[in-house]
User: Fold this.
Amino acid sequence: MIGDTDKVGLGLYNYPLIAFSLEAIVLFAGLWLYMRSTTGKTFMGKYGMYIFAIFLLLMNALTYWGPRMQSTQVIAIFNETFYLVTAAIAVWLDRKRSPKGQAHPVPATQMNTISTPVEVSQEV
Assistant:
């Protein structure tokens, strides 16, 4: 962490292995839920999220055990850029998957947003 300012939390920043392990558990639990409720439409849809999760874990490991950046400006620019790039990759990968039970997502322009009851008359 940068500086000697007061820190708030569970104090896990003092125990990087425990913090990293808990973050990995949360990441893979979320990945498991996501993969369970969606299906891949392409190769990247099937395997891309796993590759992406491993990449995120490696980057997280670098923040704990990699070389320290000394400039707060460089850290700020890197963090914002990394966030934007990883968010864009996540959106791109998400578009390669569809909810389970739905082979192809229905475009928003084809969805009926107003449902009106239809009366059916039964003539005998």
